[in-house]
Every structure is written in structure tokens, then in C-alpha cells.
Design a protein that fits this description.
This protein is mainly α and 214 residues long. Helix 3 packs antiparallel against helix 4. The two termini are 36 Å apart.
Length: 214
């Protein structure tokens, strides 16, 4: 019976990794579409969200089967319940990749009025957080999970920097206000991705220690 349970736990890990890879690719493509004003890539990224949603449902079903059929011990129970919580944050990150792609389509219509250096930097930092939070789960790495949480300050600082830049742009170029507002929404989505990566890291810590991060 335990062998079957271990096989299902391994399947859960594999599905979590699979979903993580899909989300990582989705965010990467959304960023590329935004930077290169690639409408076709943005639309392709949006179309891929349904596959992420299906994987989320598959993971949820697997977790519920493990909980109801196997009566897991404390450590396994923490892993399964953490996976259930994490997959919600992962799905929302996928949604934000779609949100960014939708704005990338809108923003592809005319040249940017400013370079997107800080937005690109913010995107890279959120990707680091996402990848490390998922690695922390797979590797059961407490130190890596804690570093993800600390790294959220970097993303928040970049968000404030970009926000100030865009507000200043609106003041100088009022006619470009619509583009500036769309770019501000893009940065807000990246800031939220950082928050979700933080949540994932916090659930990793819970799965390892049993302690809920305040």
C-alpha cells in the first residue's frame, strides 16, 4: 500500500514540475512579446492558459485522492496540503501571464515612448523568484524558500521605481497617458507574480517545518 502511495506522491511532484515549467515558459513568452511588441506571440501565450488550468485540475484531483484514500501521515499530509495551496498561486501566475500578454497585444500597436529597462529588470527578478520557489519545493530546500521571500523586497522596490517613472511620463507627455497606464498595469502584474512566488515559498516552508510563515 505504501509503495502505491509513494508512486502517487512522485506523480504529484512530476505534475507540479510540469505545471511549473509551463508557467515559466508562459511568463517568459509574455515578457518577450511585451519587449518585442510581438502580437502573434502574445496571442499564442494567451491560448496556452487553458493547458495550465487543466494541469491545475489534475493536480487538485490527485491531491484529493491521496487525502481521501491513503490517510497520509503528518509529513505527507503537509506536502499534499501545501501542494493544494501552491497550485492555486501557480494558476494565478499563469493568469497574470495571460493578463500581460493581453496588454502586450494592445501595446504592440505603436512604438514605446520610453525604454522598458526597469520593467524588463522587474520581469527577470520575478522569474528568479518563481523558479527558485518551485526548486525549493522539489528539492525541499528551506534556505532557498527563505531567499525567495527576502527577494520580494527587490521586486517591490522596482515596482515603486517604475511607477514613479510612469507617473512622471504622464505629466510630461499627457498624450501618451494611455500607454503609460497600460505599462503600469503590466508592472502591477509582475508585482503580483512576486507575491504569488512568495506564497509558494511560504508553503514550502510549511511543508518542511510545519510552521506557518506570518
Amino acid at each position: 500500500m505504501r509503495i502505491r502511495f509513494d508512486e502517487q506522491l512522485e506523480q504529484l511532484n512530476e505534475e507540479m514540475i510540469n505545471m511549473g515549467n509551463m508557467i515559466e515558459a508562459s511568463i517568459g513568452n509574455a515578457v518577450k512579446a511585451l519587449m518585442k511588441q510581438d502580437e502573434e506571440l502574445a496571442k499564442k501565450t494567451m491560448a496556452g492558459d487553458e493547458k495550465i488550468d487543466r494541469t491545475e485540475r489534475k493536480i487538485e484531483d490527485l491531491c484529493l485522492r491521496l487525502l481521501l484514500q491513503q490517510q497520509p501521515v503528518a509529513r505527507d499530509l503537509r506536502n499534499i496540503s501545501s501542494a493544494l495551496k501552491m497550485v492555486t498561486d501557480m494558476e494565478r501566475i499563469g493568469d497574470h501571464a495571460t493578463d500581460i500578454s493581453e496588454l502586450a497585444v494592445v501595446l504592440s500597436k505603436k512604438p514605446y515612448v520610453k525604454k522598458l529597462d526597469h520593467i524588463e529588470e522587474m520581469a527577470k527578478e520575478t522569474m528568479v523568484m518563481l523558479i527558485q520557489s518551485l526548486e525549493a519545493f522539489v528539492e525541499k530546500d528551506l534556505d532557498k524558500a527563505q531567499k525567495v521571500i527576502a527577494h520580494d523586497d527587490v521586486v517591490d522596490d522596482l515596482f515603486e521605481k517604475v511607477k514613479k517613472e510612469l507617473i512622471a511620463l504622464i505629466r510630461v507627455h499627457a498624450d501618451e497617458g494611455e500607454q503609460a497606464v497600460d505599462l503600469l498595469m503590466v508592472t502591477k502584474y509582475f508585482e503580483r507574480i512576486g507575491d504569488h512566488a512568495t506564497n509558494i515559498a511560504e508553503w514550502v516552508i510549511f511543508s518542511i517545518t510545519g510552521q506557518i510563515v506570518a
